[in-house]
Amino acid sequence: MNSLPPTRHLAELAYKQETYIARLMLSNQPGSDFVNGDFTGADGHFAGAGRIDIKLLGGWKQAKDFNAWSGKEPFLQVGGTIAWADTTDDFTRTVAYTTDVLYKTGELSLYGAAAFADVDDPTVLRSALIGENLWGVMVQGAYFIVPDRWQPFLRYEYIGGDTTGDSFDLMTAEINYYFKKHRAKFTVDMVIALSDATSAPGGAGIWGQERPFGTGLGMNGYTGNEMLTFRTQFQLLF
């Protein structure tokens, strides 16, 4: 088992009111050069982030997870983040922006997010193919067909860049059974790559790597459209 890279949280501040929470963070963490892959295998330097969450409905406790548990009032939250990182020895800058929204009512939960990143030097990503501007979107929804027990789940993800037509998108279908909320649950999911993330000019892949996915997804080593992974797991939380 790989050990975690050393992380130094130089500062972390939070300010909370009834309707919003603002956070500022500064850290120094080797192992974060924005390459898509395992988090233990890269170099980074300083990073900072600021985030604000605005609560429009419900209570803050409902923001702790995505699920719409029974007996809870409707909940709506919107948020935004700006993150900055010095990612190489020559102080190459990467700035990323994210906005997201979470809505829960009855047995239904919906979530969506959009992200954009501006990179001074695309070689930080080990490829000039993706370019200096990256963007992506994710939408997901879940519904308890049996309250607090059976929950089907769907997610769609897309990511692309500005200097090539190459991009990729993923679809996930899942069903969860909760024995005791997140403390004990069984999950079955299927992930489909709707486009070939390993085929880009020169055969390097969208990220300039032949293995563009993290190892936990189970898709590395495969090529072509409609790659598929089927997984099951039982989770205990102590």
Question: How would you characterize this protein structure?
Answer:
- The chain has a single domain (8-236), classed as Porin.
- Helix content is 0%, strand content 51%.
- It has strands at 8-16, 20-28, 46-57, 75-86, 93-105, 108-119, 133-143, 150-161, 167-178, 184-193, 227-236.
- It has an 11-stranded antiparallel β-sheet, with no helix packed on it.
- It is globular and about 50 Å long.
- The two termini are 20 Å apart.
Distance between the amino and carboxyl termini = 20 Å
Which band does the percent of strand residues land in?
over 45%
The fold-level CATH name is Porin
What's the total number of strands?
A: 11
Shape: globular
Instruction: Give me the CATH architecture, please.
Output: Beta Barrel
Strand arrangement in the largest pleated sheet: 1-2-3-4-5-6-7-8-9-10-11
Give the CATH H-level superfamily: Porin
Radius of gyration: 19 Å
What is the CATH top level name? Mainly Beta
* Tally of alpha and pi helices: 0
Can you tell me the residue ranges where pLDDT is under 50 for at least 5 consecutive residues?
Answer: 1-7, 30-42, 125-130, 199-211
Order of helix and strand elements from N to C terminus: EEEEEEEEEEE
The profile of the biggest β sheet is: 11 strands, antiparallel
Q: How many domains comprise the coordinates? A: 1
Question: What is the helix fraction of residues, given as a range?
Answer: under 10%
Instruction: Kindly name the structural category.
Output: mainly beta
Mean pLDDT: 77
Kindly list the characteristics that best describe this protein:
238 residues, disordered N terminus
